[in-house]
Design a protein that fits this description.
The chain is α/β, with parallel strands linked by helices. Helix content is about 50%, strand content about 25%. The protein contains 17 helices and 15 strands. The strands form 4 sheets. It has a 5-stranded mixed β-barrel with strand order 5-6-7-9-8. Strand 8 and strand 9 form a beta hairpin. The longest helix has about 45 residues. The protein is elongated, with a radius of gyration of 42 Å.
């Protein structure tokens, strides 16, 4: 029984990738637990394991007595002489036994404990070996399919490729080779479960490292990646070496490099574009193959407006909006694509709005509205950079005195006049807005009553 248990432990250890020391400790602890269960808490047995010879030696403690009450705890003084010279009553002697001597139940307990220890050691090995490999590409063979989830053998353990992480069109038979990125290690029913992905952008990035030597060596850097798995992807690349074309190097001669990656991804079309630190240029590259005529950037809204020729609008947007959607994902900007004719109309409307705003601003903040100022004084103030009532109201007395060459009392009078004017005008505007709000509310109430 001991040899069989040692052999089973050795085979399991090799299969699970356990070290000899870990395996020896696991087997020793399992036999100690089995022996202790048999002999109780009287004493702890001594166990030594030699995996090379397949030997397991077990010694249990027994007390030297004249009358034996328990064969597991006591040994008669006449029998004790076989194991110790001149034994005395009350001495504790360690007596050799076998698993068979401990009984079938002890052997089963030993096997059960051994499996628990091996599983615990295997769990630790999985964490140690794969924790630092998250984000790397792993290769394995398909073991089986469970509810559209694929179980993959990746060497020391198994991994799971969930349905949601498969590329549309992925189909594998038992024994097929499969490549995927290690996405995460999660705990399922107390056991670490390796989760793979073939749809994550990192999988495409890692394939670039595998298939393109310049990316692997760090000469070319993959800056970003956006995918719609199995259909289309955009990848931005960059290099500090001015003698290398990063896009051309990634595509390869006649597209051989990019085609090998595309074939791994079930024919996914991959656009390789050059990354730029300038967001506008980066967006123009990302929206390719469409030509960009004009861009407007709105940083507050994190939006870039892109103007393209009328006949290239569909090319810029792409099928079902795919091209502009991927470009937005890649660059991190919200993209508003307009055709040239549409932009011209919008531009005209914007200019009219700006003119109206300027007119309203001019009418409200014109220095001529301050009655105390004459034309000469207005000219001097404008030359000093005080070109509207708002600036005048926030200027200091010294600035006004210096600009108009007047004394402090006159400057204070002009400043107060400007403040009074602005206060009055702003109060009038607030009153008008409140009146409009009340009117709108009343109209909405009347409309609701009519509907009722």
């Amino acid at each position: 029984m001991s040899r069989e248990l040692a052999k089973v432990a050795d085979e399991l250890g090799r299969e699970k990738g356990l070290s000899r020391d870990d395996l020896k400790n696991a087997l020793t602890e399992s036999i100690v637990a089995a022996a202790a269960k048999r002999i109780g808490k009287y004493g702890e047995p001594e166990v030594s394991v030699d995996l090379d010879k397949g030997e397991i030696k077990i010694h249990i403690p027994k007390e030297v007595v004249e009358e034996v009450d328990s064969k597991w705890h006591d040994i008669h003084i006449d029998d004790a002489v076989k194991y110790k010279d001149n034994p005395q009553l009350g001495d504790i002697i360690y007596i050799p036994v076998t698993l068979e001597d401990l009984g079938r139940q002890a052997a089963l307990v030993a096997k059960q404990k051994l499996m628990e220890k091996i599983r615990e050691a295997e769990k630790n090995i999985i964490y140690q070996d794969f924790q630092n490999k998250i984000g790397d590409v792993v290769t394995g063979t398909v073991l089986k399919t469970e509810r559209d989830n694929i179980v993959v053998n990746i060497g020391k353990t198994e991994a799971l490729l969930p349905k949601r992480e498969k590329i549309p069109g992925d189909f594998y038979n038992r024994g097929d080779y499969i490549r995927a990125v290690l996405l995460e290690i999660r705990v399922y029913r107390g056991w670490p479960q390796l989760v793979l992905s073939r749809t994550h952008p990192d999988f495409l990035k890692k394939l670039f490292e595998v298939e393109i030597p310049e990316v692997f060596e760090g000469i070319i850097e993959v800056k970003g990646c956006a995918r719609e798995p199995g259909d289309r992807a955009k990848v931005s690349v960059y290099t500090l070496n001015s003698n290398i074309d990063p896009v051309g190097a990634c595509i390869g001669l006649k597209g051989v490099r990019i085609n090998s990656i595309s074939n791994e991804l079930r024919g996914e079309k991959i656009d390789v574009i050059e990354w730029s630190p300038d967001p506008v240029r980066y967006v123009c590259n990302a929206i390719s193959p469409s030509q960009v005529l004009l861009t407007n950037i709105f940083e507050d809204e994190e939006t870039i407006e892109v103007v393209v020729p009328d006949d290239q609008l569909s090319l810029a947007i792409g099928k079902r909006g795919q091209n502009v959607r991927l470009a937005a994902m890649l660059t991190g900007w919200r993209l508003d694509v307009l055709k040239e004719s549409e932009y011209n109309v919008i531009r005209k409307e914007r200019m009219e709005e700006q003119e109206q705003e300027f007119k309203e601003f001019y009418e409200l903040y014109n220095l001529e509205n301050v009655d105390i100022l004459d034309d000469t004084m207005i000219t001097k103030l404008m030359e000093a950079g005080i070109d509207d009532v708002e600036k005048l109201s926030t200027s200091s007395v010294d600035e006004i005195s210096l600009a108009l060459s007047i004394d402090e009392a006159q400057a204070i009078e002009i400043l107060n006049e400007a403040i009074d004017y602005l206060t009055t005008k702003l109060e009038e505007l607030d009153s008008e807005q409140e009146s409009e709000t009340v009117e709108d509310t009343g109209m909405e109430a009347e409309t609701e009553e009519e509907e009722e």
